[in-house]
Amino acid sequence: MDVGVLTTVVQLVAGALIGACIGMTGIGGGVLILPVLTLGFGLPSTVAVGTAHLYSCLCKLPAVFFHYRQGTIRFRTSAYFLIGAVPATVAVALWITGYAGAMDEADPAWQELQENLRQFIAVVVILSGVLILWHMFMRPGSHAAADRTPARVTGARILIVAVLGALIGGLIASTSVGSGILIVPLMIIIFRLTAVDTVGSSIFIALTLTLTSSIIYAGSSQMDLAIAVTMAAGSLLGVPVGVRMSRRIPERYLQITITGLVLVAGGVMLTGG
Question: Could you give the angle at the alpha carbon of 178 between the alpha carbons of 177 and 179, nearest 5°?
Answer without folding.
Answer: 105
